[in-house]
Automatic annotation (TrEMBL), chains A, B:
Entries under PROSITE patterns matching the protein: HTH_TETR_2
GO molecular function: DNA binding
InterPro entries found in the cross-reference section: BetI_C, Homeodomain-like_sf, HTH_TetR, Tet_transcr_reg_TetR-rel_C_sf
Record keywords: DNA-binding, Repressor, Transcription, Transcription regulation
Pfam families: TetR_C_6, TetR_N
UniProt DNA-binding residue ranges: 27-46
Signal peptide positions (record): none
Domain HTH tetR-type: 4-64
Protein name: Transcriptional regulator, TetR family
Length: 184, 184
DNA sequence: CCCATAGTCGCACAGTTGTGCCACAATAGG
DNA sequence: CCTATTGTGGCACAACTGTGCGACTATGGG
């Protein structure tokens, strides 16, 4: 049996539960039902409930890394494409960011989740830093500003149910334009 | 008996529970213990559990409005002072923002909380808009950028346990400086 | 005095939570 | 054939959840 596929199945089920019903509903029985499994079968792959949360946020980080790695590193639009990966511009990314927001918020009071969320933050910051460098923007502190701006934009999109996030592109474009960078 | 004082007492207890133990622990019995009340007594002022969450996020909005209203409207530094009220620069504001983040995230899947969070967002946007106007910044979309930047900065401070948020002032100052505005 | 009202608290109930334990099926190696 | 491994699923348990209900005390008006 493919145990890794089972993990992915459960994790994606937990994502859907978080997005549709919120953290309160992230229970063993709800996840099992969403994944089409018996609660006891779920516990074979995930012995404890904490491990579901842990793997779920770790999966967000991995998915982000995969998407960024798929961008041609030498492309002149690498930076612009990468920054777009940090915005919830389609259903997939929106789902991931709803999950990372919910689990990230929970991580504030959950020692098990805290290091994972810190790693995710570090990854985003690193991407902003590299994007700045690729765009020839060297002002100190600019990467932090860019990270805060992008996370803030993503936050607002995710918090508003119907928002497709298209408008965030325009805001980001204007900001980069002011820095003397053209986006395509 | 002062029923309004009782409400405030319970709400602040719920804030502390959220900040210290997270949303999972926001239960009737935990709040009651934190407030020094018997669970049944709590239910006299708050008949249902939902009402605690609702009043808690509403209280955040009211506190923000009070703080902003206390700033001299004609002061030349009104905008700068107001923007600072949106950042978690001391324990009080940090607590409020931890609560608004936790409850705001929960509001995504909680129809009762959603309108309150929307109102809170609208208030912050309105403040950013007025701050832009007071600073003579008229570029369309700038208020949205400012709101995203500030919320993103606040988010990062709140998500990192030890962070005192002082660095966000520098980021914001640099951004406004680039727009031709000096901060004091 | 009596009585009504306001507020506090204990108890109980049905439902849900995470998890431990054990029985069962399938599959593969000998 | 027997046996071990891998995985599925059912059942039960203690703990916890929100909330309903009724008993209690204190206070103040008549």
């Amino acid at each position: 049996m493919d145990l890794q596929a089972r993990e992915r199945q459960v994790i994606e089920a937990s994502w859907r539960v978080i997005a549709r019903q919120g953290m309160r509903a992230l229970t063993v029985r709800n996840i099992a039902q969403e994944a089409g499994l018996a609660p006891s079968s779920l516990r074979y792959a995930f012995p404890t409930q904490d491990s579901v949360r842990e793997k779920s946020i770790r999966a967000v980080l991995e998915r982000l890394r995969e998407r960024v790695a798929a961008i041609a590193p030498d492309s002149p639009s690498w930076a612009w494409q990468t920054l777009q990966e940090l915005l919830p511009l389609d259903d997939e990314r929106r789902l991931e960011m709803e999950v990372s927001l919910a689990l990230g918020t929970a991580a504030v009071t959950d020692p098990l989740l805290a290091p994972l969320r810190a790693e995710l933050d570090a990854e985003v910051y690193s991407l902003c830093e590299r994007a700045c460098a690729a765009l020839g923007l060297e002002r100190p502190g600019l990467a932090r500003e860019l990270q805060a701006l992008i996370d803030g934009l993503a936050l607002h999109v995710v918090l508003v149910p119907g928002d497709d996030g298209r408008w965030t592109l325009e805001v980001l474009r204007l900001r980069l334009q002011e820095l003397g960078v053209a986006c395509d």
